[in-house]
Amino acid sequence: MEFHLPLIFAILSLAAVALANHAAQPAPQLYWNSVLPNTQMPRSISELLHPDSTNEEKGNGKGKPESFPLGNKHYTQKHYGKGKPETFPFISGNKHYTQKHYTQTGASLGNKDLAIFFLEKDMRPGTTMKFQFPRNLNTATFLPRESAQSIPFSSKKLPEIFNHFSVKPTSEEAKTIKQTIEECEAPGLKGEEIYCATSLESMVDFSTSKLGTRNVEAISTEVLEKGATMSIHNYTTMPGLKKLAGDKVVVCHKQNYPYAVFFCHAIKHTAAYVLSLKGDDGEKVKAVTICHLDTSEWNPEHVSFQIVNVKPGTIPICHFISTDAIAWVPNHK
Hints:
Mean pLDDT: 76
Helix content: 25-40%
Structural class: alpha+beta
Strand content: 15-25%
Low-confidence stretches: 5-23, 51-67, 69-114
Number of helices: 11
Order of helices and strands: HHHHHHEHHHEHEEEEEEEEHEE
Distance between the termini: 48 Å
Largest sheet: 7 strands, antiparallel
């Protein structure tokens, strides 16, 4: 038998490289690759996976973040009014606009020219809307599921949580932790299934279970050129509107927390689209759009009805999702 040592060494070297690359991948990414091998990971998720600089303090073994990024809270407090997140909750990237304010109180109208909500006809090519796609400040990264599950996530365990993250109970950080957990524990709309995912693995499990398939597409709004800005621009819709599959979508919104937590809700009676936009400054955006086909359960005083000038339950109302949110839909391919 003739041995080809160079060939054998080459094969062994490739195998060693493959094993090294596999070992270098963080656990959440390995889980994604195993469960969703045919689903491309959106940037809003991949940028939260940093195997060399995770939220865990090196060597402490507790899964404890090095710092507490308050993230997109600054958009709502500093740039949109008087420290009230309710002013422009949609821009902040959390779920206030979809859950809390539909069922409770109406949000402040704020800048009346800003197209937070719009109608399906506004997606026709040539339509211009004022909007803003701010860069993400919420940099908290994912913990592996095992680490996240070892940390309490309950309003009944707040003292233990504060102690774990070395947060003073009277601090702004403690207030943010408390608010996020309470929002996660609040009931959803009628027919809406909600869940706060404390790991990427749990977000994948919830989204695929509610869609009833692992053949899914995960997609986010992305700024394609020039980068997100702090200012408002006129955006013109371009040709190439794409409707995503299914009449049910799971949308997950990044929350303010020491590590990555996403508020996810499975929404029925929806249509999801990908819309191409071009700003008056040349900025190009691939905007994921959610259109709610049934608004009969929304609060009649909600800002959306003031902006588009319609009544609840009449015609669909649409909105973009922020750049740190993910829309999960069945993959029609």
